[in-house]
Design goal:
Blueprint (H helix, E strand, L loop, with lengths): L11 H8 L11 E4 L6 H15 L3 E5 L5 H13 L6 E5 L4 H12 L3 E5 L1 E4 L4 E3 L1 H9 L3 E5 L11 E6 L4 H17 L3 E8 L1 H10 L8 H11 L6 E8 L4 H10 L3 E6 L23 E6 L4
């Protein structure tokens, strides 16, 4: 039998402060973390615990296998170590990992799923794992995927926002990155606009004579309207025929966290825009995917 120290429940003022801590334009109500007894098990769980505390949101540990007392004891031991004994619940769900995770996500109405991102690592690229790839394609909620989870987690210091267009969703993701950096002591937010050669040619053909601002003018205006005295803001317009150009740029940037917009799976549009769909194959850094809400 494992006995945990009682968790410290937060005061009403602390809960209200946590509700104002927005990764998105809204508070996550329930978090889920895909768990398996891999070498990174404790690190992914520690990262999830940090987010759970920051948002004062309950955490569900999702394990794609049948229940056993031994596994339950390992989970409870890890939760006690992280002082989450009374704020987290373990869900066992037999089945293939992605199907099991998504079933618990639906049943518990989880709106942010957390998982490890990698299958294999190489000198040049981090290849997306099968589970992470399945979640990127099919999860009907936001995703936080870790390429480098830490057992002593820290808030991101250098955030990069990768966008494929200038839509309202892309603008919201950028504003959310600024909000996250401001509230968690981030130092830098870099806005990366990934433009295909075709899109560049289309913009040049259209010109700006009809009053439509250029892409670069819009990016500059986004930075100017959201100046922060203690956060370094920058933008980069990246042009290329393949998305991997963006992947290489992000990897070389040294960003702690990459944020990008995505359509909700099952919509009439691709989940990721063509300029960003490489993310399903390769993840260059810790990744927060923000879905476009339905309706």
């Amino acid at each position: 039998m494992i006995f945990c120290r009682p968790c410290r429940w937060r005061s009403e003022s602390e809960l209200l402060a946590a509700q104002n801590y927005r990764i998105l334009p809204g508070v996550y109500r329930r978090l889920g973390v895909a768990t398996t007894f891999s070498p990174r098990f404790k690190a992914v769980l520690a990262e999830s615990a940090r987010v759970s505390r920051a948002l004062s949101a309950p955490l569900y540990l999702i394990h794609a296998d049948t229940f056993s007392p031994e596994k339950q004891e390992r989970f409870q031991s890890a939760l006690c170590e992280l002082e989450l004994g009374g704020k987290a619940e373990v869900r066992f769900e037999p089945g293939t990992p992605v199907e099991a995770i998504l079933k618990v996500q639906r049943d518990a109405e989880i709106d942010l799923l957390i998982a490890g991102a990698l299958e294999t690592e190489s000198v040049h690229r981090n290849f997306t794992g099968d589970v992470a790839r399945g979640l990127l394609r099919n999860a009907p909620c936001d995703l936080l995927l870790y390429t480098e989870p830490r057992e002593d987690p820290k808030a991101p210091d250098d955030i990069l926002v990768a966008i494929p267009d200038l839509t309202e969703l892309s603008h919201r993701v950028y504003n959310s990155a600024l909000d996250l950096a401001e509230r968690r002591g981030g130092r830098r937010v870099n806005l990366l606009y990934v433009q295909t050669t075709f899109a560049e040619a289309k913009e040049k053909a259209r010109g700006t004579s009809n009053g439509t601002p250029s892409t670069e003018d819009v990016l500059k205006s986004w930075l100017e309207e959201q100046q922060r005295s203690d956060i370094e803001l920058d933008y980069h317009l990246l042009r290329g025929n393949t998305g991997f150009t963006a992947c290489e740029y992000i990897q070389a940037s040294g960003a702690d966290l990459v944020m990008m917009p995505s359509q909700m799976p099952g919509s009439n549009e691709p989940v990721f825009a063509p300029a960003l769909d490489w993310i399903v194959q390769v993840i260059p850094a810790n990744l927060l995917v923000i879905r476009e809400a339905r309706g």
